[in-house]
Amino acid sequence: MTIVYILIAILIFGVLIGIHEFGHFIAAKACGVRVNEFAVGMGPAIWKKQKGETLYALRLIPLGGYCAMDGEDEASDDPRAFTNQAPWKRIIILCAGAFMNFVLGLLVVLLLYSSAEYFRSPTLSGFMEGCPYEGEEALMVGDEFYKIDGHRVYMFYDVSDFLGRGGDYYDLVLIRDGKKIVLDDFYMPAVEYPDQEKKMIGIYIGGAEKATLGAKLKYSWNTTMEFGRMVWMSLGMLIHGEAGVKDLSGPVGIVELMAETGEQAESTSDAIYNILYLGAFIAVNLAIMNLLPIPALDGGRVFLLLVTWLIESLTHKKLDPKYEGYIHGAGMILLLALMGFVMLNDIWKIIKG
Q1: Rg, Å, the chain Cα set
Q2: Which CATH number fits the domain 118-210, given the four candidates 2.40.50.100, 3.30.700.30, 2.30.42.10, 3.90.980.10?
Q3: pLDDT tens track for 188-198
Q4: Among residues 21, 144, 226, 256, which one is catalytic?
Q5: For residue 136, is pLDDT > 60?
């Protein structure tokens, strides 16, 4: 079954990229920009068709894709060229790919939750014996955790994650009887319990919320937002040196992870569920990563577009787009070098087993 899960993973990865490029494509068409080619995949074309002004192509290597717009990185006399559009139109086009990835992740989670009967909510369901936090001015059974130290609580497991980070005082926002209860600097130390190996907060979390349509929409949104927060936390770990470049994974590592996820599942249906769940997380990951202000990424293009617009507004002179193209070209070379390193590292991890 491993090869089957690998093929499924490759297909999912190709869909993620295709959806991203499709976002650029439909936004460009909607804004009246001339699109010369829309391709899914990289390398030699295995299928292509010219329809109107656009060449549609499916290419051999399912690890990329592109939406080639006229005048994207160079000056053009065509009024429909990308560089001749208003800044707000170009920003919409550049952000559309990430937006489509985010929406895809949200829709996949909604699909996975469509058959749910109940959700486990971040609600206080009970206290351990002797827990000192119970009371009207403290915590009560039925309280829903809304924020902990400024962090939004999306899922039930967020409560233990944020309360388990050390310290004895927390800023809590609870939902009680439909009203927000604010507890600033609430004293909530971990307590020793005879039957537990380590100190614990001493509360039970996880109420059962019926999976109505509204609940499915809410928890689908919350799960997607949780994915986004996990990505930002991972970036923070990378910036602060808690994780290194060797901990990054590229397409090879992602496909391997999806295959392992499928193999470790107890049934085929569980495998498909877990792979799709992971695929939704990766979709949100791609959305956020693509909007980072790094040259060659969509976020870098938006950043330089805003810088160019500011300079042109102050100097009243139009800058040659080729200079921006040089910056993105250099960024692409560095990005490809990083991708090559990550790919070799992924392959080495697989070989080491």
Answers
A1: 24
A2: 2.30.42.10
A3: 887 776 666 66
A4: 21
A5: no
